[in-house]
Amino acid sequence: MAIQWFPGHMASARKKAAEAMAGVDVVIEVVDARLPEASTNPLVHELRKHRQRPCLKILNKADLADPAATRAWLDHYNRMDGVHAVALSCRKPGEAQRIPTLCQALAPHRDSLLKPLRMMIMGVPNVGKSTLLNALVKRRVAAVGDEPAITKALTTYDLPQKRTIVDTPGLLWPKIEHPGDGLMLAASHSIGRNAFSDIEVSCFLGDLLLARYAALLTARYGFPVEGLDAVGVIEAVARRRGFRLKGGDADFDKAAFVLLQDYRDGVLGRISLETPQTRAAMLEAAAAAVAAQAEARRVAAAEKAKEKAARAEALAAQANADAAADSSEASDAHVAPGFVIDGDDQIEGKRADDR
Ligand SMILES: Nc1nc2c(ncn2[C@@H]2O[C@H](COP(=O)(O)OP(=O)(O)OP(=O)(O)O)[C@@H](O)[C@H]2O)c(=O)[nH]1
Ligand SMILES: [Mg+2]
């Protein structure tokens, strides 16, 4: 089943962000550079479009992402109309300082003390929104931490030149359409831990790493990965690290969590969970699956209609046969008294007539 997480504080944050949008000139949408599309929230687009606000898209945590994939994503986004995308690492002091200038270029009319620039940071949980805010304010005014939903309320902060910036709680959306997106978000710690199983997400991550970053697994844990699947990788991590249960079996849960945490901390190396090519292939496969389901539904409905028609035809034929039988019985019944000489009645009758 697809992973979903839309706790109550997000529903109210969505409402408040929609209200705040009226007093904002530019939306800074922070996504995770390792999964830029899976961490793009359709609600942000919806709220922004409603007020026609421009968007600066920030692929944050670029220090953790595969540089080739990040370059491909920037090309992909910057070819789109009305989107300006940059990659950065908010952990590196100074990298964020160009953000207000980039936002200013998107709202050139808001460039004076009378009409100062107003920005709002939005994005899914744990992508580094508050870290970016702190870098811009140059003080640790907002709490940050490596878990989802650290920020719980919208807060406005002042910047030089009377500019303002709003930090918002991480927002997801009520239904994550593609199961892979939920798994990528969970692997990257953007989803509350009660909403998914570490083992399922770790197996997803293990398969992805085997397919695209197998050498990083060997480099980190020191075992060859040939012939292994995700479960084999997690078991091998447990063996290598000596994670054992009381009876001596491998502690699979612990090893699954360690694999996840190593990815989250970036100690496996620079990894991107999706590229524009893998995304396009995933969307194509999803569209083909939807089309196949629709076709299966159509065939099943046609089959059902055919069965219904056949049943109706059989019933009609039966009714005709019954009617025919009834009418022949009825005509037999008419004829019988006159013509069937059945024993004494007729003879009796004759006798009576004769009499
Ligand atoms: N490696 C790396 N870590 C980052 C970067 N930016 C933020 N982080 C870390 O990511 C974690 C989440 O950062 P926050 O700023 O709290 O994220 P947020 O988007 O405000 O999260 P919520 O308020 O929960 O929605 C923290 O541990 C940060 O130190 C970055 O560019 N690179
Ligand atoms: Mg925050």
TrEMBL record:
GO BP annotations, alphabetical order: translation
The source organism is: Rhodocyclus tenuis (Rhodospirillum tenue)
> Keyword set for this entry?
GTP-binding, Nucleotide-binding
Supply the source organism's classification: Bacteria, Pseudomonadati, Pseudomonadota, Betaproteobacteria, Rhodocyclales
Q: Does the keyword Manganese apply?
A: no
- This chain's protein is named Ribosome biogenesis GTPase A
Q: Which SUPFAM superfamilies match?
A: P-loop containing nucleoside triphosphate hydrolases
Check the record and name the PANTHER family matching this protein.
Answer: MITOCHONDRIAL RIBOSOME-ASSOCIATED GTPASE 1
Query: Which parts of the sequence are annotated with region: Disordered?
Result: 321-355
Record field: compositional bias (Low complexity): 321-336
Q: Which domain of life is it from?
A: Bacteria
